[in-house]
Specification:
This protein is α/β, with parallel strands linked by helices. The strands form 2 sheets. It has a 7-stranded mixed β-sheet with strand order 6-2-1-7-8-10-9. Strands 3-5-4 form a 3-stranded antiparallel β-sheet. The longest helix has 20 residues. The chain is globular and about 60 Å long. Bound molecules: S-adenosylmethionine. The site of S-adenosylmethionine has 26 residues, from helix 7.
């Protein structure tokens, strides 16, 4: 008898922890509505294993119970955790190196000169994940000019995911994560953690240039001033076409008339947006008004 019941339990536990197609659809609808994300049904297995951690954390035994809770008034505090488990946070230092080359050679000379006249210069890393992108930008700024901290030149780094922003703020990276950081940059701007726990912490000089904030790109944006450069890379690829189309005019409005915008390698403007921007390099765009500047 005891043998029978111990055999029966794992099976019922396994069945209970399966996400049904209907359950998956509830999650996909939520992701679209709350974060603009499209999750194809081929990702059911991935979503199931990611949300299984939330079941364990909240103590629910079935996905249906968890989802009922999530969609109820009581689930408001769980929502950010659920969204966090649905986002893809893969990032890398100096990812798509050609963008940093453009920043260094075509953008920074004029921007730093302008900042030295007292002007305000802002760079936005939209969908910054765990900080590799804004930190790569910050090292470019400091490598270009040591007096950046004294200028009004800063990076805003935003993400929807509070958990990943916690990691960005901690600014500690494994040796594997810093493999793309050139040795000289690693020595100058990262401090090896003493514990031997094999981690590198970004130096305060870099972190002082960056403000991390939580921002859902599909919500209204509180920023009042325009940005000179916007990095929004490998973010909209996860968005529905409608979400992307609604974003392009907002980025256009948020960008200085002579600004620059970088997208990820597999992201493209739609036909309508392509008329208000001009192509200025590989997945590099400027407002049409900037042509020739
Ligand atoms: C794949 S990472 C890209 C990180 C970095 N930009 C890069 O290229 O390495 C995508 C990031 O977009 C964020 N994201 C997804 N949906 C978002 C939304 N609606 N608003 C703001 N950020 C979002 C995710 O949390 C994730 O950290």
């Amino acid at each position: 008898m005891s043998v029978q019941s111990s055999k029966a339990r794992p099976q019922s536990a396994r069945l209970a922890a399966e996400l049904s197609q209907a359950g998956f659809q509830r999650v996909a609808d939520l992701a679209l509505q709350k974060a603009g994300l499209t999750i194809p049904s081929s990702k059911l297995g991935m979503i199931q294993s990611r949300l299984a951690k939330r079941l364990a954390a909240t103590g629910y035994e079935t996905f249906d119970q968890y989802l009922d809770f999530l969609f109820s008034g009581d689930g408001a505090n769980e929502l950010p955790q659920a969204i966090s488990s649905l986002t893809t946070n893969v990032s890398q230092f100096f990812r798509e190196a050609h963008h940093f080359e453009t920043l260094r050679t075509q953008i920074l000379p004029a921007l730093v000169e302008r900042a030295r006249t007292g002007a305000r210069v802002r760079i936005w890393s939209a969908g910054c994940s765990s900080g590799q992108e804004p930190l790569s930008i910050a090292t470019e700024l400091l490598e270009f000019a040591q007096d950046i901290a004294a200028l009004d030149m800063r990076i805003l780094a935003t993400d929807i995911d509070h958990a990943i922003l916690g990691r960005a703020n901690a600014a500690i990276y494994t040796p594997q994560q810093v493999v793309d950081v050139p040795d000289g940059i690693l020595k100058r701007y990262f401090v090896e953690e003493a514990s031997g726990a094999a981690g590198y912490r970004a130096a305060d000089d870099l972190l002082e240039l960056i403000a991390y904030r939580k921002l859902n790109l599909i919500d209204p944006w509180p920023m009042k001033n325009r940005f000179d450069v916007i990095f929004c890379r490998n973010v909209v690829i996860y968005f529905s076409d409608d979400t992307q189309s609604a974003l392009w005019p907002r980025f256009h409005a948020a960008l200085a008339p002579d600004g620059w915008m970088f997208l990820g390698h597999s992201e493209r403007l739609d036909d309508v947006a392509a008329r208000s921007f001009v192509n200025a390099g590989v997945t590099t765009y400027r407002p049409a008004s900037a042509a020739g500047s």
